[in-house]
Specification:
two-stranded antiparallel ribbon; elongated; alpha/beta; 7-stranded mixed sheet
Length: about 375
């Protein structure tokens, strides 16, 4: 840098390795987040839109590393939007658990809308505000204007995705307007990050950073932070690759164990087959004997069936004969009864005629006696 050109103040935090931060488009800006926390020493840091928490966890890591009394708050509904995509509660639950374990003493997650969260912060109380919610022009402008009264005299506002010009992203439009009104600096790597100094009382290092815009030193600073961010991205890729290798090794060991168990099972199966092969001839002999006995039993059964069939035929024939005899007997009986009835009629007729003649003298005598 030439004489009279503002110099960027380097610090130890900017070279920190990132701890447990999920890979994202923000990863490349973590070295600046570390640098910013050490230089600005914010008393209150608020992030609007955290998703997996890459940037927010980076801020918290720097606060703990620098031993600051900063209070940190992440505001989000943790359901996603049209730009980040939509997701379930697992994202919030994972981030909440890690934040509680590592930074619970000074950090809190506020699951609510940005407007709902504003009421929990006094005007002029926020030193660093990171806006990374819905990225349309209207939404980002509304977030900035609504939260601007909350910014302190040392206030710094960060805008992510200033370089994205697709899918209705409008951060770049708002940034082009605001960067003309406030001291500012823009990183162009990792989708872009705008640094807006809205408070009149800034550390000299932040003012020097903003003064680099348009100078030859700006390119050097951009390359420096891009390289530091790329190192963290590379470390994450290496860590992910190592984790994948460990997973593959574990899967391989499990498959080998399963293969060993399968081999033992095959050996046991082979022994069982051999035992059954030895037992098979004996079993076949028993089966043959049983089949022979069954054949004999079947022949006897068939003979008995034939005999029963003959007896059934004889019984049917005898039954037919008996039926004929019974019919004849019934006919003869009916004839006899008819003849008997006829004879009875004749006898009654004869008896009647005989009695009439026998009683004639008695009738005459009776008539005479009545005439006297």
């Amino acid at each position: 840098m030439s004489t009279g050109t503002p110099r960027l103040k380097l610090n130890a935090a900017m070279s920190l390795p990132a701890l447990h931060v999920p890979p994202s488009a923000w990863t490349g800006h973590l070295p600046f987040a570390f640098w910013l926390v050490e230089e600005a020493k914010p008393r209150m840091l608020v992030e609007l839109g955290s998703h997996h928490g890459t940037s927010y966890l980076g801020f918290c890591q720097a606060v703990r590393h620098c031993g600051l009394d900063t209070r940190c708050f992440a505001v989000d509904i943790w359901t996603g939007d049209e730009h980040s995509g939509f997701y379930g509660d697992e994202v919030f639950n994972t981030l909440w658990q890690y934040n509680q374990e590592q930074y619970g003493g000074f950090s809190a997650l506020m699951r609510m809308t940005f407007d709902e969260a504003r009421g929990y912060f006094a005007d002029g109380s926020v030193d660093v505000l990171h806006i990374d919610g819905l990225h349309t022009y209207e939404a980002v402008r509304e977030d900035f204007e609504n939260w601007l009264p909350k910014m302190s005299t040392r206030g710094i506002v960060l805008f992510h995705d200033t370089m994205v010009r697709e899918r209705n992203f409008g951060v770049w439009r708002l940034w082009s307007e605001l960067s003309q009104r406030y001291p500012s600096f823009e990183f162009v790597h990792s989708h872009g990050l705008g640094v807006l100094l809205v408070g009149p009382q800034q550390p000299q290092s932040l003012l020097d950073l903003a003064a680099l815009r348009g100078t030859d030193s700006e390119v050097t600073v951009l390359r420096l932070f891009d390289a530091l961010g790329s190192r963290i991205c590379a470390d994450q890729r290496i860590e992910a690759a190592e984790q994948r290798v460990d997973e593959v090794l574990l899967e391989t060991r499990q498959r080998l164990a399963q293969s060993g168990a399968a081999a033992e099972g095959l050996q046991e199966g082979a022994a069982l087959v051999r035992d059954r092969a030895v037992q098979l001839p004996e079993g076949l002999t028993v089966v043959r004997e049983q089949m022979s006995q069954l054949s004999k039993d079947l022949a006897v059964t068939r003979l008995q069936a034939a005999q029963l069939s003959t007896e059934v035929t004889a019984l049917r024939s005898a039954n037919a004969t008996n039926e004929t005899v019974r019919t004849n007997l019934e006919t003869a009986l009916q004839d006899r009864e008819t003849r008997l009835r006829a004879r009875d009629e004749q006898v009654r007729a004869i008896m009647a005629s005989f009695s009439w003649r026998l009683a004639a003298p008695m009738r005459w005598l009776s008539t005479k006696l009545k005439g006297k």
